[in-house]
Amino acid sequence: MSVITIERKVLEKNDQIASRIRQLFLERGIFVLNFVSSPGAGKTSILERTFQELKGSVGMAVIEGDVQTDLDAQRIARYGVPVVQIVTLGGCHLEANLIQDALKSLDLNGVEMLFIENVGNLVCPASYDLGEATKVVILSTTEGDDKPLKYPAMFLNSSVLIVNKIDLVPYVNCDLNVLKNNALKINPALKIFEVSCFTGAGIPEWCRWLKKKDASDQ
Amino acid sequence: MSVITIERKVLEKNDQIASRIRQLFLERGIFVLNFVSSPGAGKTSILERTFQELKGSVGMAVIEGDVQTDLDAQRIARYGVPVVQIVTLGGCHLEANLIQDALKSLDLNGVEMLFIENVGNLVCPASYDLGEATKVVILSTTEGDDKPLKYPAMFLNSSVLIVNKIDLVPYVNCDLNVLKNNALKINPALKIFEVSCFTGAGIPEWCRWLKKKDASDQ
Fold first, then answer.
1. Which chain B residues are closer than 8 Å to A122 by Cβ?
2. Per-residue pLDDT tens for A21-37?
3. Cβ–Cβ below 8 Å for B149 and A69
4. What is the DSSP string of A28-85?
5. In chain B, which end has fewer C-beta atoms inside a 10 angstrom radius, N or C?
6. Nearest residue, CB atoms, A147 vs list B40, B146, B151
7. CA angle, B126 as apex, B121 and B132 as ends, to 5°?
8. Do A90 and B123 touch (CB under 8 A)?
């Protein structure tokens, strides 16, 4: 029972910091998205595609979260987008205090959209508010259409679902309609995009929504 | 700091229970494998293929771990293999006390091989000993060849790596040699199998090793 108490305290403290960060983002008119998914679902690839589409028209920045290595930050940096890497050294999710620390190393002038790429984990990051406006869960078709039912918290706590790797549907055991229905059973309000970072399909629709959302939230 | 202390205590208690369970398995000559991977990498599919190959020649049983639903246990039960489902209700990994509880519902008479299918999570289950003889990490090619470097603990703590979905290599951004080299950089002692649950490729080799290992461990 003591463990549960401590965990509640951790979550409460996290939520307090997250509220302060959210306030800062609101004051500065920065639209913040928290990207969550299993390892390899395509968080970084979607960011790369998004930069290609929006670079020059929207001021963007990234906070990268990884258990180990700065491989993803290196990928992001190639696009000239400011990026701060958080290495959790085994930690299975990002917490609000890590975002607060990362912000000290990030110049927010001109930033209209901040992407937080969480640790690849479809369970733990669901519980931690990072002060974002929107949690975006990414699910790749190769993971199978049953995943929303098996990992419901992440789909319940997100407002957007990006289904990635739709180019692989012919080769894998995944029915896109079943996948979407399963996701909507858990969270009927989910906004769903279907994309392929390999072919670029669906990326313009996602980016159009992103730009519109950014404008309306400021 | 108190959180770290508590976590250490949790791990210590877990390890004590795991040692007791391991002793029980050794006494009964049961070879126990702890399957770990991201969601959708193919843990259940590899079990299904393994049952097809070994059914009738080896006494097998399964403990299924899931955050929610008994979908995987339903898949296993179709093969006539005894299965107990643990639903963690949000918990991100299995712990030894859950295995201890599950064993109360499992008749071990005639069981030579016990597969524990952990929660789909490439981070947290790395830290929890379940009394297994062997931790088997499954990585699908669709997750990308950089994952061993980004999630090193799981590859360091496993003795076997099954690379699944090799039939998809032509369609994804994954170099099998780079993947294997990255895994061996983290853990040079890893025994590696390359399989496709879709085509069945590599399954006989994996099952031959399994039978040989089972016989030598008893």
1. 38-39, 120-121
2. 999 999 999 999 999 99
3. yes
4. HT-EEEEEEESTTSSHHHHHHHHHHHHTTTS-EEEEEEESS-SHHHHHHHTTT--EEE
5. N
6. B40
7. 110
8. yes
Contact of B69 with chain A, judged by CB distance below 8 Å, is answered with yes
Q: List pLDDT tens digits, range A138-191.
A: 999 999 999 999 999 999 999 999 999 999 999 999 999 999 999 999 999 999
User: In this prediction, does ipTM exceed 0.90?
Assistant: yes
Q: How far apart are CA B194 and CA B167, in angstroms?
A: 10
Rounded to a whole number, what is the distance in Å from the CA of B69 to chain A's nearest CA? 6
Chain B contact for A100 (CB, 8 A cutoff): no
Interface of B with A in 103-122 (CB under 8 A): 119-122
The first and second tokens of residue B169, run together, are: 């290599």
Q: Is the pLDDT of residue B123 over 50?
A: yes
CB pair distance less than 8 Å for A92 and B92: yes
**pLDDT 10s digits, A85-113:** 999 999 999 999 999 999 999 999 999 99
* DSSP-assigned states of every residue in B175-213: -HHHHHHHHHHH-TT-EEEE--TTT-TTHHHHHHHHHHH
Contact at CB, B144 and A119, closer than 8 angstroms: no
Single pTM value for the model:
0.94
Return the closest-CA partner of residue A51 out of A163, A200, A217.
A200
What CA–CA distance (Å, rounded) separates B200 from B57?
19
Interface probe, candidates A9, A38, A44, A66, chain B, greatest B C-beta count within 10 A: A38
A133 close to A110: Cβ distance less than 8 angstroms: no
Look up residue B106 and give its amino acid. L
Backbone torsion region of residue A120, taken as left when φ is above 0, otherwise alpha when ψ lies between -120 and 50, otherwise beta: beta
